[in-house]
């Protein structure tokens, strides 16, 4: 199961009730962030999913609205008693940007490891997720991220019985591990049945429509794409600022054959992005507009569940 | 008249409903900020007093909770079409900190001028206010700021008549300007009566109690001081972390003979700082706890007016 939360849905500058870009991704007790705009630490507090489980931050690019919350987030991790390393990923130049921003967070009780990614498809593995970073089409180098949670093929008990493997070994084999049975090595693939589809979502903001989005997002359960402008009359502005219209995002999702589309990263010119939903759904019907703290849950063998306006429980203050 | 607003009242780390340190100071159409913690730009939007009128930011020190909102604030000024220079003041090292943080805000359509202040009393003049920066007692170099709005002496019409100055010159003389009357130069001091008291407030956070606070704040209409901990049992923690208890702030205000005391910069261990007010008022009765967006108004010949829970009008979104 994967839980997602759009912590902030503002593009470029925030609004009083719209924080800047950040996505919280939680999978089997581990977590990561994509981007960390100003206010991210407050949004994580509101959400209540915690700080210390966040093992990595994947930055799309170095415009301030995607990274200005990093010093505060690093210090919030320290206040949460983090002692394990934190991995940061981002476009080339990451280490320089992070060390510059850390002028106000120089001392941390844990290691910050910067991984500069190339501007070409790059596989990384974080929180049990197979992630591919891929280049987008923005005014500065910008990466999208494609996430896949693989699923093992179905276990075949008949094959296990046929190979005379005692039941006490079945658990390991089901988890894909090989076992030793009476001096005989048995590989998991010998007792695996039909292949099963894993989970797949893609995140891309700050870009014009791109072949990479359509290609990596092929058949994704969920795409989270920028919808900087809803109004089709802002096409020129979208071109000029290297952003997408709602309908362009919907075309990407449609062309990729995605299951659902969640829009985010809105211009302040749209107070209510949902007024543009109806016409966007003519292009790709299962489109929704994320709000700050909207949530999505992806589960094997089920359609994604969206909770756009979740009730967030009150936050218990921390001692300090 | 001076209007003040405590944009954020959180110390060290924010809470969901408590932004980090920043004070908005408005005087005769000009404005400045003291400190600029993460979330300041959102708080300014909520307040609705505007960005472009802010001509300067006075930083107390370089802990992240006081400066992490600076890149976002600088970009928000750009979005508000600022074209005039912005002046930044702060302890030694300011220019290095600002240039490091600007790694994510490198291009701005206006000039940012950094003024490093010495760690000794330093007079500056911003927005028509006579300001003295003075050193505090924190774990790193930290400045407090004392603000005075001078007031001209009362105009003496009898003296003006006695000197045979036509009434058409009186306005200039009242504003303290000298005039030429039939080839005769008349200085304003010749037609000034009794001296009049101006306005005076002081801002100091992130410090142990200090002689400078008591000295510069002597007779201030209002002191805004940190109250990191309300509980007197946290005295050791206050010592260790170089912060003040509520009662220590109250003692400073009492010893300075201040008119009122507004506490701010609260630890996250206090969900409701007001529960410690009653015992603090035994030391200095006119003490209040600021909340985010609390306001104070200082006017000549009147006691300060506090509005701790103002109704903030809804914000009109900006085109972008």
3D structure, described in words:
- Two copies of one chain form a homodimer.
- Chain A has 320 residues and is α/β, with parallel strands linked by helices.
- The first copy, chain A, has one domain (2-151, 197-307): Metallo-beta-lactamase, Chain A, CATH 3.60.15.
- Chain A contains ten helices and 17 strands.
- Chain A has an eight-stranded mixed β-sheet with strand order 6-5-4-3-2-1-16-17.
- In chain A, helix 7 links the parallel strand 12 and strand 13 (222-226).
- The radius of gyration of chain A is 21 Å and the shape is globular.
- The two termini of chain A are 34 Å apart.
- The A-B interface holds A 12-16, 19-20, 38-39, 41-42, 45-46, 62-65, 67-69, 71-72, 75-76, 79, 96-97, 100-101, 103-105, 267-271, 315, 317-320 and B 12-16, 19-20, 38-39, 41-42, 45-46, 62-65, 67-69, 71-72, 75-76, 79, 96-97, 100-101, 103-105, 267-271, 315, 317-320.
């Amino acid at each position: 199961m994967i839980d997602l939360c759009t912590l902030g849905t503002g593009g470029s500058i925030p609004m009083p009730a719209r924080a800047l870009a950040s996505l919280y991704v939680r999978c089997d007790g581990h977590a990561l962030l994509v981007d960390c705009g100003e206010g991210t630490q407050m949004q994580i507090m509101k959400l209540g999913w915690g700080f210390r489980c966040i093992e990595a931050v994947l930055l799309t690019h170095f415009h301030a609205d995607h990274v200005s919350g990093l010093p505060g987030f690093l210090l919030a991790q320290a206040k949460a008693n983090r002692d394990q390393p934190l991995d940061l990923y981002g476009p080339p130049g990451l280490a320089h940007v992070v060390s510059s921003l850390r002028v106000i967070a120089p001392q941390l009780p844990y290691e910050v490891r910067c991984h500069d990614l190339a501007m070409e498809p790059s596989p990384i593995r974080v929180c049990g997720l197979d992630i591919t970073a891929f280049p987008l089409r923005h005014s500065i180098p910008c990466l999208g991220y494609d996430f896949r949670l693989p699923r093992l093929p179905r276990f075949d008990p008949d094959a296990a019985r046929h190979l005379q493997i005692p039941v006490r070994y079945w658990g390991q084999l089901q988890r894909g591990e090989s076992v030793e049975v009476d001096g005989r090595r048995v590989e998991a693939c010998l007792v695996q049945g039909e292949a099963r589809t894993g989970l797949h979502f893609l995140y891309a903001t700050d870009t014009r429509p791109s072949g990479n989005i359509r290609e990596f997002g092929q058949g994704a359960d969920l795409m989270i794409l920028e919808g900087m402008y809803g109004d089709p009359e802002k096409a020129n502005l979208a071109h000029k600022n290297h952003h997408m219209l709602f309908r362009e995002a919907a075309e990407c999702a449609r062309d990729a054959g995605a299951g659902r589309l969640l829009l985010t990263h809105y211009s302040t010119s749209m107070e209510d992005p949902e007024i543009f939903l109806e016409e966007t759904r003519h292009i790709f019907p299962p489109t929704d507009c994320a709000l700050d703290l909207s949530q999505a849950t992806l589960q094997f063998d089920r359609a994604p569940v969206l909770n756009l306006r979740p009730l967030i429980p009150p936050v218990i203050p921390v001692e300090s």
